[in-house]
Amino acid sequence: MPRYFFNIRDGHDLDEDDEGVELPDFEAARAEALATVEELREELADAGNIELEITDETGRRLLTVPFFRGGRGGRR
What we know:
- Residues 3-67 form the DUF6894 domain.
- InterPro entries: DUF6894.
- The chain has 1 helix and 5 strands.
- It has one helix spanning 26-40; strands spanning 3-10, 13-15, 21-22, 50-55, 61-66.
- Strands 1, 2, 3, 4 and 5 form a 5-stranded antiparallel β-sheet that branches.
- The protein is globular, with a radius of gyration of 12 Å.
């Protein structure tokens, strides 16, 4: 199973996920990222420009999900 990493980017700072998680495919990783953003949205609403990045085992960025107040976001 592929391993996906969920990094938090706060402006220029990057909090890298060192462990990652094994998931069946990219769609499962995307669903995990969107669920995480929904869970943390209120907590991080005033924290500024924060994004959740999904990367693969090679470090390639697959998806960036911005944290927005009161709305969904996501771009490839």
